[in-house]
# Entry
Amino acid sequence: MSSSHPDFFYTFVSMKKRLYIFIFLVLLVLEVGAQVSLTYQKPSKEILELVDVPLAPSVLVNDSKDFMILLYRDPFKSIEDLSKEELRLAGLRIDPKTNIGSRVTYYNNLKTKDLINHSNLFQVSGLPPDPKLSNFSFSPDQKKLAFTNTTSFGVEVWVLDLNSNLSKKLTEPKVNANLRDVINWFEDSKSILVKMIPNTKQDIINTEESIPIGPIVSINDGKKAQNRTYQDLLKNKNDEHNFDLYKVALNGENIKWLSKAMYNRIDFSPDGEYVMVTTIEKPFSYLVPYYRFPSKAVIYTKYGKKIETVVEVPLIEDLPKGFMSVRKGKRKFNWRNDKPASLIFIQALDGGNPEKEVVYRDEVFQLDPPFNGKAKSLIKTINRFRSAIWGNDSTAIIYDYWWNTRNTKTYLFNPSEITFEAEILFDRNYQNRYTEPGNFVTTRNKMGSYVLVLEEGNTFLNGAGYSEKGQFPFIDQMNLSSKKVSRLYQSEYTDKLENINNYDAEKNQLLVRIESPNE
# Structure
């Protein structure tokens, strides 16, 4: 049969047309489909009920134990929060638009309960729309609760009156919440010291989009030193400019307290008469995070009058090798909680070098007002100093630790008797949870500071109670003279999880939280 046969030609042409039409329709469908804008979808109701379960609220109780505040939040962050820009500067991770940490956990609702009258839960009124609440802080008189609210423009300070259950805004969204000590109450409970962003502050620069204004210059002074590797360091002058964090301290009436600077830490003395203010100084470094930049700690009166500079720390780019290495000189300044205004600081006795063999690693000193005299030595620790719990003139607890051996020691000593040898209460491996003796119970004193609970020569320990058979939290009583330990309470739940939040030794009362999988 000839290929030029009319029937064959007709069939071939018809099939070709149909093929073109089919391809055209397929391309048209694909083109239309490519233009469809998809949105995030929710799973089926059954799956959603398994995953999106309301969280149990977090609980705050004021020290006078007459009000309980319940804090509610969503189980997951929103797409909006997860997609926000994050800048990593000198060890900080911040939201450049709002000036707060980029990974803060926010709460979206508050409810209160009157523990004296055993009332029902009450919804806090006056909260901002779409609240993002954090940085909660009770006033010294325990009648108010201050907190921050993060908006799309910045961070505000709000305050809740516990008696009226009404909240109100105190500041515009100009709070600098990138570093610690966002809210600091004055002793009269009528005003708050807040880090604010001045109007002259320039926008934080995104270095991925900006044009460099000059070369990156780093100075080497010729010293040889080993250093650790850190994340999120400053990389250039733009990043360095980003780190200029300013603060204007305000009371409740928006009065300027101190001029702008790079304020890091703000710490009132227990009696509220003094404030220790720590600032970050230049030069910055491209090798270490912000907490190893130069810094200065200055004591002011509560009215903002400068009293004394207690320490000036240089840039710390080189330290001896090892996790337990520290810098030379005075470090870890804190107020002694059982005194009106006494500073405690630490000095290394090994030059900060963990490889050096010494009997004692650290020495603890006390410096009293006007903070320019000779400091008094209180105790020397075998390991590196970790923390202290102050009781009274004759009783205090000190903790030390040593990472290399995982050893920690707990000392009992008399801070008024320098020649009195400290007694080691516990000497253990801090990774062994089965041998944890518990944490010493503290209480809030008349100045609003937490001190060691002392009742007729006894103190108390709140333990997590880990064991081979399960977790059974406990309260122990320790006699400080005989060192005899007796158990006052231990959880017996095997089907529930009990956490002891607080023990009131004077009333012999426990505040516990019990979790159950089916109740």
